[in-house]
Specification:
By secondary structure, this protein is mainly alpha-helical. The protein contains 9 helices and no strands. The N terminus is likely disordered.
Length: 191
């Protein structure tokens, strides 16, 4: 059996969460297990993008308030409940950035960086690749950076990426492929 990343859950887990969600729609106090399970990962997601701990706590709180208020509108779409929470978190982070409450940051995972460097197929030394990639990443649009973060630094499945970003799984794949092509061209132009 293939081990699941922290962003992938079993069908059984999704079914159990769905029961809690349905109970929470009738009694908001039943939401507590979901809050306890997802508060820390949602906080980390926000903190990685803002690098401001206090702002991240405030935004995370807002995410769960909005989730609880809008829980009656939640519909199961074959992906973990966390995808819905991450979509709310993404929206709240961008609102905070627009209002200049936080600055957007990108935290890079070493293993994800290695995989991304391999995907760009740059024929340089490791240090040169990292410098070139850093320059090229800084030239990407925020939406493109987010796709790269989710795929390479958070190891998310395309289906979950699509759910969070409100696009199809195939569209997420195509966009990542196109971004990788942009990065390859950019790296080649730096040489």
């Amino acid at each position: 059996m293939i081990p699941l990343s922290p962003y992938h859950v079993s069908v059984e887990t999704m079914e159990q969460e769905l029961l809690v969600i349905e109970a929470s729609k009738k009694d908001p106090a039943a939401f507590r297990p979901l809050y306890e399970k997802y508060h820390e990962p949602i906080f980390r997601y926000i903190y990685q993008r803002s690098d401001d701990k206090e702002a991240a706590f405030d935004i995370a709180q807002q995410v769960f308030v909005k989730a609880l208020i809008n829980l009656s509108r939640y519909t199961f779409k074959g992906v973990p409940f966390s995808s819905w929470l991450y979509r709310i978190a993404k929206s709240e982070v961008y609102k905070a950035i627009e209002k200049n409450k936080v600055h957007r940051t990108v935290n890079v995972d070493v293993e994800g960086l290695k995989e991304l460097l391999q995907e760009t197929e740059a024929d340089e030394t490791s240090i040169q690749k990292e410098k070139s990639l850093t320059i090229c990443m800084s030239q990407l649009a925020d939406a493109d950076v987010q796709l790269i973060e989710m795929r390479f630094f958070e190891s998310r499945a395309f289906k979950e990426m699509g759910q969070i970003l409100e696009m199809t799984e195939n569209n997420a794949k195509v966009k990542v492929y196109r971004i990788l092509e942009k990065l390859k061209k950019c790296i080649l132009s730096i040489r």
